[in-house]
Specification:
With 258 residues, this protein is mainly beta. The chain folds into 2 domains: 115 residues, Metal Binding Protein, Guanine Nucleotide Exchange Factor, Chain A, CATH 2.170.150.40; 126 residues, Domain of unknown function (DUF427) (Metal Binding Protein, Guanine Nucleotide Exchange Factor, Chain A). Helices cover 4% and strands 44% of the residues. It contains 2 helices and 22 strands. It has a 7-stranded antiparallel β-sheet, with no helix packed on it. A hairpin with a 5-residue loop joins strand 15 and strand 16.
C-alpha cells in the first residue's frame, strides 16, 4: 500500500458492528480503507448505514490517531456509557459521507463485536490481499534456544501467511513443554483465532518472554494447527531438514527486544 496516501475499495460483504445491545452499523456497502503506514485495513460505512443518533462530536478529539481524519465522534450507549473517539470521518471528496469505527479488540475502544455476513470477525477486517495456508508436512523440524533442543518433529504443520515468514507448528507431544511456563498473554488474529503463550522457564536476558504460542481453538482456515505449538523464528534457531534457517527481520523483531 502507498506510504503517503489513503487507499480504499468497495466491499460486497454484509458488515455489522455492535456495542452492548446496540447494532451501531448495519451495511451491505462498506468500503475497506488502508491508511498510510498501516498494514491492515479498516472498514468505513455510508452515513445512512450508521446509528448517527448514538454519536456526538468528540469532547477531546484524538486528532493524531488517524491520517486524514477530520471530525471525531464519541459513542454514547446507555448500557456502557460514553466511548471517546469511537468513530471519525475522513477528509476529501472521495470519502465524504463515510464514517469509520475503532475496534475495541484492537485499540481497547470502539465497537465490541463485528460480523461479516453471519460470522463474527476479530481484531480488524480480513485483508482481501492476504491469505494463510496451513499445510501438513513430513519435514524434519528442530527448534533450539541457546543451544538447547526444545522441539523435534517429523510431523509439523507449516503455516504460510502473506508477508510473514513460515511458522513451523509442532505437535505438543514433540515439544519439551517441561522447559516452559504458560503465561497470561492472549492475542487475537482475524485469520487464526485467539493465541495462548509460553515463556522459557528461567531464561536469560537474551531470550524474550512469550516466544512460543498456540491456537487451542483455531478458526476454520487454520484448523490444522490445533494442538500444535510454534515459535518466533526471529528469536529461536529453527533447523529444517538439517539446514539452520536465518532469523528473519520482521515487525516482531523489535517487539521481542522490548
Amino acid at each position: 500500500m502507498p506510504a503517503d496516501a489513503i487507499t480504499w475499495e468497495p466491499s460486497e460483504r454484509w458488515v455489522r458492528g455492535k456495542k452492548g445491545r446496540f447494532t451501531v452499523v448495519d451495511s451491505r456497502r462498506p468500503i475497506l480503507v488502508w491508511e498510510p503506514g498501516k498494514v491492515v485495513p479498516l472498514y468505513a460505512f455510508p452515513r445512512e448505514d450508521v446509528r448517527t443518533d448514538l454519536l456526538r462530536p468528540a469532547a477531546e478529539p484524538d486528532t493524531g490517531a488517524h491520517c486524514g481524519a477530520t471530525v471525531f465522534y464519541d459513542l454514547v450507549a446507555d448500557d456502557d456509557g460514553t466511548v471517546p473517539n469511537a468513530a471519525w470521518t475522513f477528509s476529501g471528496d472521495e470519502l465524504a459521507g463515510y464514517i469509520a469505527f475503532e475496534w475495541s479488540q484492537d485499540v481497547e475502544r470502539g465497537l465490541d463485536h463485528w460480523y461479516e455476513e453471519d460470522e463474527e470477525i476479530f481484531v480488524h477486517p480480513r485483508d482481501p490481499y492476504k491469505r494463510i495456508d496451513a499445510l501438513r508436512s513430513t519435514r524434519h523440524v528442530r527448534v533450539e534456544i541457546d543451544g538447547t533442543l526444545v522441539a523435534d518433529t517429523h510431523h509439523p504443520v507449516l503455516l504460510f501467511e502473506t508477508r510473514l515468514p513460515i511458522r513451523y507448528y509442532i505437535p505438543r507431544e514433540d515439544v519439551r513443554l517441561d522447559l516452559f511456563t504458560h503465561t497470561d498473554l492472549r492475542t487475537g488474529c482475524p485469520y487464526k483465532g485467539t493465541a495462548e503463550y509460553w515463556s522459557l522457564t528461567g531464561a536469560g536476558d537474551g531470550v524474550p518472554a512469550n516466544l512460543a504460542w498456540s491456537y487451542p481453538d483455531p478458526l476454520p482456515a487454520a484448523a490444522a494447527v490445533a494442538r500444535h505449538i510454534t515459535f518466533y523464528n526471529e528469536a529461536v534457531d529453527i533447523i529444517v531438514d538439517g539446514r539452520r534457517l536465518e532469523r528473519p527481520l520482521t515487525d516482531f523483531t523489535q517487539q521481542l527486544k522490548a
